[in-house]
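Please, structure for the following, as tokens.
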Amino acid sequence: MVQVSAATKPSNPKDDLGSTRIDLSLPSPFALGEEALAYEEGLCKYGRNNYRVVGVRTMIYVAAAFRHLWKFTMGEDRDPKTGVHHLGSVRACVGIILDAQGYGKLTDDRPPSPKGFSEWVDGLESRVKHLREMFKDKNPRHYTIADGKD
């Protein structure tokens, strides 16, 4: 039996068409599993797909995502009551915003944005570069969460 690599294999029409489509196998199964667990929590508390019918306000889910992200950042991987991973909850919050937007059920209550905000954020990179160049001779210790453990 002759082994043929994918790069040299003769192509069939499905190969040609499939290679131009989005690859939904790219997200991590671990991340999807944790996200699904967060959706399961929501299903149990609020009902399946409630946000597709009654809609959601953007900032409610943005605020929830930030709370979960901060809890994770401060060292708590999982909610102590539910066992749901905080990053799974972040993904679920963002997913619900995207889903509600796709269904036309999103109330966009984000605050007004100043003109040029994205450019301002991008412009901070040059300031970071300046600071790092200015202090390149320093070698400070950078502490992590491991330093705060007993």
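The mean pLDDT is 92. The two ends are 60 Å apart (CA to CA).
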